[in-house]
Amino acid sequence: MEYAIRLYRDGDARALTALALAAIREVGPHGYAPEQVEAWAARHPGPAMYRRRASDGHAIFVAVDGHGVPVAYAVMEPDGHLDRLYNHPQHTRLGLAGRLLAAAEKHARALGLSRLYTEASELARPSFARAGYVVTHRRDFEIDGVPIHNYAMEKRLG
Fold first, then answer.
1. Where are the alpha helices (DSSP H) in 1-158?
2. Among 30, 39, 47, 49, fewest CB within 10 Å belongs to which?
3. H/E element holding 149?
4. Cα 149-129-122 angle, rounded to 5 deg
5. Nearest in space to 57 (alpha carbons), one of 78, 84, 43
6. pTM of the predicted protein model
7. Residue-wise pLDDT tens digits, 37-90
């Protein structure tokens, strides 16, 4: 299947919400306990978040299939923070995460940023590592009383 990377468009918000929740619920159990997955999913914001982020200057890179349907995305804040990276479960292990991270890096370099950084889930960490990000530390925290973790990672662009 052919895929393309493009910027967020009005009308993508519901599809991005659905694919993120599918990724959390279907792929999440490969790295997290059921109660952690449900706490993570319950915390995920709805479609309004994408519209707000796009209007606030965040770059949202969207991978679409040959029919133009969003199947993966990454959200980059103006300071180089990668806030989200999700692939729909039916479109994993196809290099889309790497392509999205490359698009974010190209954008960051055009903005003159010196680094990209993120908090990667157990499942996203390998994709970030392949793209040259290094773990700075493990982050242990709670979501609604449920212990969970992710990894602070960064990539220097010098």
1. 13-27, 34-43, 47-55, 96-111, 125-130
2. 30
3. strand 146-156
4. 20
5. 78
6. 0.94
7. 999 999 888 899 999 999 899 999 999 999 999 999 999 999 999 999 999 999
